[in-house]
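Supplementary Methods. Inverse-folding protocol.

Structures were first reduced to a discrete structure-token string of length 321. This string, shown here, constituted the complete conditioning input.
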């Protein structure tokens, strides 16, 4: 199947008083249409910045973004408006991302009005109500305001708004992190149903490994701006090869996958700074397998097993491959 989105060597740096912060540093991947790429890592690893760069909410420092084979790295304002119809974003905190002065129907109607997707007032009302039906929001809530609704319903508004222009690709930035566990499952199921019905492609950003396991086809693991492992969801959970991924998964309570027994392996050592990062592997200060070479030379991302990419000098040795 063809890739709908390709990211090539994406970099996003920020100037700070202390130096240059390498928030995203050379991330490359592709996502097939209708699939979900989960992006995981600790807070501050650059995953949300990556999502924002892809949909042009942040300007990249370097790299190339291809959407449906077309280079969309540098866009004029008019081009950007066109591309935005196909690339939308769902945010973590629905309360913060919704205008408190607008009613539910006004929030959902806004993109339809901006992009002139309606022929009349009656058509607008019809489309808004249909979108509310699609995301499971009762029509009687059309005139309610975000503060009158619970977190789950607010996130349904965010989903309806993202769907309004019938996009092909959605960046979901921690869309269930702010919700109660019972509501999380409802929103995740809704998103999966919508994906199936509309052949949507998701980039799903989360720090929650149970969530990423539930929804992803492939998983990209990031550490301090770098991609350290990329593989199918099954390979990441059953056969992770990078020391950071191993530690990340060992640190959280997950249901046992297959017959695998979980070994606890806590991360020790100090987190390196992403500001003017030192040469070598960014995980070296916390890695139990680090050797001299790790502090001097940055490991390249290599395909260690079929469709399983790892950035570690000693991945083969550590995993007996
Ligand atoms: Fe650990 Fe070295 Fe591999 Fe980095 S390159 S993950 S420090 S063994």
């Amino acid at each position: 199947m063809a890739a709908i989105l390709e990211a090539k060597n994406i970099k996003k740096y920020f100037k700070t008083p202390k130096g240059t912060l390498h928030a995203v540093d050379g991330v490359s991947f592709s996502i097939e249409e209708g699939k979900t790429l989960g992006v995981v890592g600790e807070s501050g690893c650059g995953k949300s910045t990556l999502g924002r760069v892809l949909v042009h909410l942040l300007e990249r420092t370097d790299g190339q973004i291809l959407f449906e084979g077309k280079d969309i790295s540098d866009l004029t304002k008019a081009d950007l408006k066109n591309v935005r119809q196909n690339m939308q974003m769902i945010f973590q905190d629905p309360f913060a991302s919704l205008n408190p002065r607008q009613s539910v129907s006004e929030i959902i109607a806004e993109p339809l009005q901006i992009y002139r997707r309606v022929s009349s007032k009656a058509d607008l009302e019809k489309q808004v109500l249909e979108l509310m039906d699609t995301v499971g929001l009762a029509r009687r809530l059309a005139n309610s305001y975000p503060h009158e609704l619970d977190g789950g319903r607010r996130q349904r508004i965010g989903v309806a708004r993202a769907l309004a222009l019938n996009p092909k690709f959605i960046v979901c930035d921690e869309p269930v992190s702010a919700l109660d566990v019972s509501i999380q499952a409802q929103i995740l199921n809704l998103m999966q149903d919508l994906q199936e019905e509309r052949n949507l492609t998701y980039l799903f950003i989360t720090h929650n490994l149970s969530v990423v396991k539930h929804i992803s086809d492939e998983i990209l693991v990031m550490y301090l701006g770098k991609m350290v492992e990329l593989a199918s969801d099954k390979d990441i959970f059953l056969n992770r090869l990078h020391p950071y991924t191993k530690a990340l998964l060992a640190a959280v309570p997950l249901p046992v996958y297959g017959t695998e027994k979980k070994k606890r392996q806590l991360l020790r050592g100090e987190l390196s700074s992403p500001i003017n990062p030192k040469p070598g592997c960014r995980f070296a200060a916390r890695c139990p397998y680090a050797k001299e070479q790790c502090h001097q030379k940055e490991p390249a991302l290599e395909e260690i097993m079929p469709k399983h990419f790892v950035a570690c000098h000693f991945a083969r040795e550590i995993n007996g491959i």
